[in-house]
Amino acid sequence: MEYEDVLRQYLGEFGRYQKLAALLIVLVGPSVGATMFAQAFLAATPAHHCRLYQNDSSAMYGHPSESLNLSVPMENVDGTWRYSSCLMYNGTGGTSAGSNQTVRCRDGWEYDQSVYHSTVVTDYNLVCERHWLKELGQSIFMVGVSAGGLISGTTSDRFGRRPTVVACIVLQMGSGLAAAFTTDYVIFLVLRLLAGGAANGLFYVGLTLAIEVIGSSKRNVVGMTISLSWAVGTVFLGGLAYFLRDWWSLQLALAVMSAPLLSYWWLLPESPRWLLSNNRTEQAKISIQKAAKFNRVTIPDEVYEKVTKPKDKEPREKSKKYNLIDLFRGPRLRMITVTMSSVWFATVVVYYALIIGSADLAGDPYLNFVLGALLEIGLSLVGLVAMEKWGRRPVVGGFLFLSGAACLAVAATPTERQDVIRYISLLGRCAIGVAFTTLTVYSPEVFPTVVRTMGVGVANMSSRAGGILSPFVSLLADVWPPLPMLTFGILCTLGGAGVFSLPETFGIPLPDTLEDGEKLGRKQQTKIGTTDKTTEPEHNRGPVVVSGHVICDNDVFHHEEF
C-alpha cells in the first residue's frame, strides 16, 4: 500500500491536517516574495546631477538656480531635456565661465528626494561610472538564490523538509536584520547573498512539503495558491516601500516579517511521503497517526503495517542515499532535468528583469510595481483554471510565448513612445509572472520523490545563473537600446518551446522512484483505485486519484500524453 492510497481511502486528500500544512506554507510566500524583489526599492536610482563645488541651498536638486544652469549641461534622454546625470562643465569654481568642456562629477552627486529619501545607490553613490556596482549587487544576490536552491534541496532530501524550512527561516531573518544596520556595502552584499539563499530554499522546500502531504487531486490548487502568495508579497512590498522611503527601514521591516515563522519549529509537520521514501517507518507511522487524529479519522492497524512495509527493492537500494548524479543516470530523467533547468534559466532571466525594471517605467514607480503584481495575481488565477482544464504544458508554454511577444514588441517600439512601452512592458511582466507561478507548480511534479527537491534545486540553480546575468543584460542598452528586450524576447520564445518537450503531469500520480521518473510522460497505464476498467482519456476525467506508482496491465486505463 502506498501513501497515496492512505490519503484516498482513510486520511482524506485535503483534510484538516493537509489544510494546516498548506496554510503554513502559503504564509511563507509573502516574506519570500518581498525579499526577492526588495532590490527594486532598496537599490532604486533616483534622478541626480553633479554636486556643485559652491553648493548651497539654492543649488540643491529640484531647485535650479543660475549657478546650476551654468554648471551642469543639459542632455536629451528619450526625447526629454534634463540636467546631465554624470557631467559638469570644466569651469573655475564649477561653472562654465572658463570653458564649455565637460568633465565627470568631481564632488559627488545631488539626488532627487521627492520619491526616495535614501537608497543603497544614494548612500554609496552607485551611479555613473559606479553604476555597475548596483547590478553586481543584484547578481550577487542571485548567486545566493542559486546556491540556496541547491543546498536546501540536498539537505531537505537528506535530513527532511521540516528542519530545512526552519533553518531557512532563521537565516532569512538573521541576515535581513544585519543588512538593515550595516554601513559597509561589501558586508551588505554578503548579507543579501545569505538572505537570497535562505528565501529560495524556504519557498521551494516548503512548496515540496505541501505537495507531498496532500492528495494528487489537490496538487494544482494548493501549488498555485502557494505560488500566488509570492505575488502577494510583491504587492505588500510595493505598499511597504511607499511608506518607508529609507532603504534601511524597509530592509528592517522585511526582516521582521519572518519573525512569526519561527513558530514553525512546533507547528510544521514533516512529510510522511519523505519519511516513507527514506525508510523511516516508525517516524512515518507516528506522523500518519497524528494526521489521522487531527483529521478525526481512524486508520486500522493493518493499514499502518502495509504502508510502512518496505517496498520490494533490490538489496543495494534499500538504504541508498540519493545524490545529484541520480538525476542524470537514466535518459528520460536526464532529459527532464536538463530541459527543466533550461526553461527555468530563460524564465528567471526575464522575470527578474521585468519585475525589478517595472519600478523604472514612466509614471509612479510604486503604482507600476503594485499594478503589475495585482495583474499577475489576476492572470495567475486564470492560469489556475486553465491548468485544470488543459494541463501544465499549454499554460506554462503559452504564457512564455506571450511574454516573449511583448518583449519583442517593446524592442520594436520607438523610445519616444514611453506610454506605449509602459503598457506593453506591464503585459510582458504579467505574462512572465504567470509563467513563473505555473512553472513553480509544474516543476516538483516531474521529479521522483527520492530526488524531488534536489531536482528542483538543480533546475533553480541553473535558472539563477540567468538571474545573475539578468542585471548585466540590461547594460546592453548602452550598446543598442532595444537589445535587452530583444534578448528577453528570444529567451522567452525558446523557453516556451522547451516546455512542450517535457512530460505532462496533470492528473497523474507523483513519481516516487527513479524508475517512475523514467516512465513519466510516456504512454502509460495507471491504476485508478477501482476494479472498473475504462479507456476514457484522463484529461477528460479531471484529476484522477491514483496510487503512488505507475503499474501495468491489470485494472488499468490507458493514459494519453497530450
Explained architecture:
- The chain is mainly alpha-helical and 562 residues long.
- The chain has helices at 3-11, 16-26, 29-37, 39-42, 66-71, 120-124, 132-159, 161-181, 185-213, 219-243, 247-256, 264-267, 272-277, 281-295, 301-308, 331-357, 365-390, 392-412, 418-445, 452-474, 483-499, 514-519, 538-541, and strands spanning 48-50, 74-77, 80-83, 87-89, 102-104, 109-111, 524-527, 556-559.
- The two termini are 29 Å apart.
- Pfam families: Sugar_tr.
- GO terms for molecular function: transmembrane transporter activity.
Compute the number of helices.
Answer: 23
Uncertain runs: 55-59, 92-97, 313-318, 524-562
Percent of residues in helices comes to 55-70%
In what range is the share of β-strand residues? Answer: under 5%
Number of strands: 8
Query: Could you tell me how far the N terminus lies from the C terminus, measured between alpha carbons in angstroms?
Result: 29 Å
Characterize the main sheet. Answer: 2 strands, antiparallel
| Shape descriptor | elongated
Please tell me the overall pLDDT: 82
Spatial order of the strands forming the largest sheet: 1-6
* Structural class category: mainly alpha
Radius of gyration: 26 Å
Keywords: Membrane, Transmembrane, Transmembrane helix
Region (Disordered): 513-543
Membrane topology: Multi-pass membrane protein
Transmembrane segments: 20-44, 164-181, 187-209, 221-244, 250-268, 333-354, 366-387, 394-414
For the structure shown, list the relevant keywords.
disordered C terminus; 562 residues; two-stranded antiparallel sheet; mainly alpha; elongated
